[in-house]
């Protein structure tokens, strides 16, 4: 099998890094204070709480669910691993849209299972074939908002798909905090819907590794059997709790990112690109008559890293992460020159 290849993470140098959907701002100052406090004394000599209870209590309060409805992970990638290992055995099928987050396919292949890819429509909607029953179909996953498009399916559409599917549906809301709607309410209505969130993007903590999933408690109990005992460490639990506690920081940061996203999308459209309607912290751009790869390469030569994505059977395009206003100005200026 081909392994998953993450986006470039250049070490050193002065890159404008707009390639892996990181938040360009520093996290809430409460995060560093929480890490310092957790690192003092002999706390790190002891194993962490296997269930990250302080985080679950705080998140449950903020989201309006019971703490037993939450499981935490070492980033949402860890939760994806746990979910796929729980539901998908050798020879089973995992339904996913295409193009979407490439890791879904990798995790399926690790299980010696079959990736059942259903192509998005050209307007990034998903037709009913996504929910068609199939023998050994044991799990479905959608990223909502989707990557690379940034587009969003409405909760009504997700609900309709989940009702037709013969298996649980994971709604990966890694970018959900930037979107106008989310599917958390659907978890209360259906045992077949599992919502995942990440602190990497909207809380500016990609380097920390923390995410969580929300599902009905009998599902969470099964997921707990599969996860590593200590999948979240003491420092990340303390930091994630401080981050989610600072909802004022989230609100301000989200507003800044959305405003910059709108400015970026308008500027890029002005250069003749088609830009999908993004509800995330990145935009997906395709040009009707200019090849994409040379644009990516030219920006790279200028120290600006964006993502060139080429999806077999679908086409290629450029995904640009929303950076600071200054970073986006530099990127737009470079595109204009090109
Ligand atoms: C759709 C989607 N899900 C999950 C992740 C992984 O996020 P985390 O950093 O929480 O593992 C990403 C990261 O880029 C993503 O794009």
Summarize the structure.
With 338 residues, this protein is of the alpha/beta class. It is built from eleven helices and 13 strands. The chain has helices at residues 29-39, 53-63, 76-87, 103-110, 155-164, 184-189, 217-226, 234-245, 247-270, 293-301, 325-337; strands at residues 16-17, 70-73, 93-98, 114-119, 137-143, 169-173, 193-198, 211-214, 274-275, 282-286, 304-305, 307-311, 315-321.
The number of helical segments is 11
- Full CATH superfamily name of the largest domain: Type I PLP-dependent aspartate aminotransferase-like (Major domain)
Q: What gap, in angstroms, lies between the N and C termini?
A: 38 Å
Q: How are the strands ordered across the major sheet?
A: 2-8-7-6-5-3-4
CATH architecture of the largest domain: 3-Layer(aba) Sandwich
Q: Given this structure, which CATH class of the largest domain is correct?
A: Alpha Beta
- Quaternary state reads single chain
| Radius of gyration of CA atoms, rounded to a whole number | 20 Å
How would you classify the helix and strand content by structural class?
Answer: alpha/beta
Give me the strand/helix succession.
Answer: EHHEHEHEEHEHEEHHHEEHEEEH
Shape descriptor: globular
Count up the domains. 2
CATH topology of the largest domain: Aspartate Aminotransferase, domain 2
| Chemical compounds bound to the protein | pyridoxal-5'-phosphate
Low-confidence stretches: none
Please give the share of residues in helix: 25-40%
What proportion strand?
A: 15-25%
Query: Which sheet architecture does the biggest sheet show?
Result: 7 strands, mixed
